[in-house]
Amino acid sequence: MVEQAVGFLSEMIKKGIEIDSFTCNVMIKGFCQIGLLEDAELLMYQFVNEGIDQDVVSFNTLIDGYCKAGDMRNALELIDKMRRESIFPDIVTYNTLINGFCRIGGFDEAKNLIEEILRLKQNAYISKIDFIRNQGSDEVEGDVIEGLDLEPNLITHTTLISGYCKSQGLEEALSLYEEMVKSGFSPDVVTYSSIINGLCKSGKLAEGKVIFREMERIGVAPNHVSYSSLIDSLFKAGNAMEVFPLQSKMVICGIAFDLVVYTILMDGLFKVGKANEAEKMFETLLKLNLIPNHITYSAFIDGRCKVGDVFGAQAILEEMERKNVTPNVITYSSIINGFIKKGMLDEATDVMRKMVGKNIPPNAFIYSTLIDGYFKASKEEWALEVYKEMTEKGLEANNFVLDALVNNLRKGGRMEDAERLFKDMTERGLIPDRVNYTSLMDGLFKAGKESAALKTAEEMA
């Protein structure tokens, strides 16, 4: 493809069409967008052979391509190549790299880049003073001294704040936010929305509401991300009555409901027992030609299961598959859990086998649900077989699995088996929680094993 692009370029030159770096950069960007990064880089050097100089935009385009592909090594190597060509990175270059590192959780590297910007800026001013002293002029072009035009900007800070919020680094995000405000930057809607989202996902709904009110107070209009983050958290906290005024405010402010907002509203309405309203939400988004994704379908399926309509949920699953929307482990777990709650263990097992057949491995939650279901149906050996299958597949048990086994075995008077499994799981590296310890301790006391129960109490403490 590189040969074709260069050939096309040569033809344009022969026809007297003037080719500049802008045209070349458009072609480089095209290659990057279809994932041909190495070809894009080769194309850039081919353009140089044709007498068209590369510029900072050429390199930024390539760096952006590598960053989006998660290839930070090649992105950083391009910085060295830039400097060898006496082309200095600009703030766009640094923002792109910072965003790239944030995407892969490289926050230390991202922070180091901000520090590098500040260091280059400081060194540039010193160099400028020396230049003025030597030349007797204060006219210094930005590309003469690296760093002279560099300044961490709103995008730089917001990118890092957003990255921290998405990766549960809320304290770091809030610290950077305060630092940003002190430096004289005015946060924009993206900054505020990232912080609100981070606070809400960390269970800090009250703090999220404070930031929401603050952005309204200073005249920054909340967007659908700000609203959807709050609405989702309010539903999860059981504060449905606070949701509806926010929903109305969105309409008044002309903020269009997207698929994310409809999905959150539908899921929340199911969670607070308003199944009819939730179903209307689903019907509305279909009428608006919004295409449900696996999250929307999974929320709807889970809602139908919660109201006891497991077969209806299974029909939605089939519709989902017909429309080539791939279910995930959460989708299947809702249906499996729904069947188990109805005591329909065969149907639940069939669904699990179906998901395995589609190369979607069951998780620990599904196994713990099945184990608990078999115990409640007085099929203890079947429950233990499920646990055996789980360990044979190399799936690590979690506290839910341990509780399902120990709690049901102790209730059935099989304390020796309960103790054996408890010991087996802890030796495999599972750290029991307070519920696990309490369940075991209760069973030991009831079995007359006071000393073992007290030893368990000591371990728990």
Report on the architecture of this protein.
- It is built from 25 helices and no strands.
- Among the domains are: 1-127, Tetratricopeptide repeat domain (Serine Threonine Protein Phosphatase 5, Tetratricopeptide repeat), CATH 1.25.40; 376-460, Serine Threonine Protein Phosphatase 5, Tetratricopeptide repeat.
- It has 461 residues and is mainly alpha-helical.
- The model is unreliable at 122-149 (pLDDT under 50).
- This is Pentatricopeptide repeat.
- Keywords: Repeat.
- PPR repeats lie at residues 20-54, 55-89, 90-124, 153-187, 188-222, 258-292, 293-327, 328-362, 363-397, 398-432.
- Pfam families: PPR_2, PPR_3.
Oligomer: single chain
**CATH fold group of one domain:** Serine Threonine Protein Phosphatase 5, Tetratricopeptide repeat
Would you report the number of β strands? 0
Unreliable runs = 122-149
CATH second-level architecture of one domain: Alpha Horseshoe
Radius of gyration: 30 Å
End-to-end distance: 67 Å
* Broad structural category: mainly alpha
The top-level CATH class of one domain is Mainly Alpha
Largest sheet: none
The shape, in one word, is globular
Mean pLDDT reading: 83
